[in-house]
From TrEMBL:
Residues 1-39 are annotated as: Disordered. One of its GO terms (molecular function) is glycosyltransferase activity. Gene3D superfamilies: Spore Coat Polysaccharide Biosynthesis Protein SpsA, Chain A. Residues 9-18 have a biased composition (Basic and acidic residues). Residues 20-32 have a biased composition (Low complexity). Residues 46-200 form the Glycosyltransferase 2-like domain. NCBIfam families: DPhHxTase_Halo. Keywords: Glycosyltransferase, Transferase. This is Dolichyl-phosphate hexosyltransferase. Pfam families: Glycos_transf_2.
Length: 263
């Protein structure tokens, strides 16, 4: 039986277990060397991101992915830049899809759906997320998770601007109350997903896409687990207006949670 068939057969069981699987579990890095033919390796992984004028960070982010995955993960950038970001991405072997800048979610949705490897990992292209955690994310998928979500707030996220930290805690509280399920970080950019999860759901949000990508799978009974991660200070300029973006995210959390509840 192929690993994909084995996992598809186990899907209903995992959905039933999902109520207890949601939050705050530390995950150990497991065997990602590929010795077990039933396990996914980095050859099954696409690391994807929206990139919008990130020339200060993209080289470091792509170098880190190359080092950590030994060059085995595929990298896809959906790019709307007017600087050298796409050239640097191509020099590092990434696949670059050009797209006029239309916001975070429009780019990331395209980036998630464009490749066809069975595991997709999202990140921001600003050097805030620890690519050295990729083996732990893959190990969690191999343990049966459908979605592994990097929880930046667990370790305190000191490098995050205080306003954003407050907002992110508020979003998590709001989402937890609406879902009836405790989550700690709804707006993280670093997650791993089984492809079948992202392909089976219709995504509607833009700035709020990150929250939507957590809320809809969780409320549909997928095995979603938060994994604590460190968070670094951003390289380069933010692309998000904190007030306008924050309001859009709060609206998305409300809309998506209610849609899922009454689905
Ligand atoms: N292609 C594309 N990428 C985008 C767009 N908006 C944001 N991005 C990318 O999406 C990622 C997230 O944007 P950020 O500016 O880091 O937003 P954020 O993480 O909420 O804010 P920070 O706390 O400043 O990091 C980055 O890699 C951006 O380059 C867009 O309109 N088009
Ligand atoms: Mg960012």
């Amino acid at each position: 039986m192929s690993s994909m068939q084995r996992r598809a057969n186990g899907r209903e069981d995992r959905r039933d277990e999902a109520d207890t699987a949601a939050a705050g579990t530390a995950i150990d890095a497991g065997d990602t060397t590929g010795d077990d033919p039933e396990e996914y390796t980095f050859e099954d992984v696409s690391v994807v991101m929206g990139t919008y004028n990130e020339e200060a960070a993209i080289g470091t982010v792509l170098d880190d992915i190359e080092t950590v995955t030994d060059g085995h993960a595929e990298v896809v950038c959906v790019d709307g830049s007017s600087d050298r970001t796409p050239e640097i991405a191509r020099e590092h072997g990434a696949r670059v899809i050009e797209q006029a800048p239309q916001g975070y979610g429009v780019a990331v949705r395209e980036a998630i759906l464009a490749p066809n490897r069975p595991i997709v990992v999202t990140t921001d292209c600003d050097d805030t997320y620890p690519m050295e955690q990729l083996p732990a994310f893959l190990a969690a998928i191999n343990e049966g998770c459908d979605v592994v979500s990097g929880d930046r707030l667990y370790h305190g996220a000191e490098a995050m601007p205080a306003f954003n930290r407050f907002g992110n805690r508020a979003f998590a509280t709001l989402a937890s109350a609406l879902m009836g399920e405790v989550v700690h970080d709804t707006t993280t950019g670093m997650r791993a997903y089984r492809r079948e999860v992202v392909e089976s759901i219709e995504w509607t949000e833009n700035t709020g896409l990150s929250a939507e990508l957590l809320i809809r799978p969780l409320m549909r009974g997928y095995d979603v687990r938060e994994h604590p991660i460190a968070y670094r200070e951003r390289a380069g300029e933010t692309k998000l207006d904190p007030i306008e973006g924050g309001l859009a995210i709060a609206k998305s959390i409300l809309k998506v949670s209610l849609e899922e509840r009454f689905r």
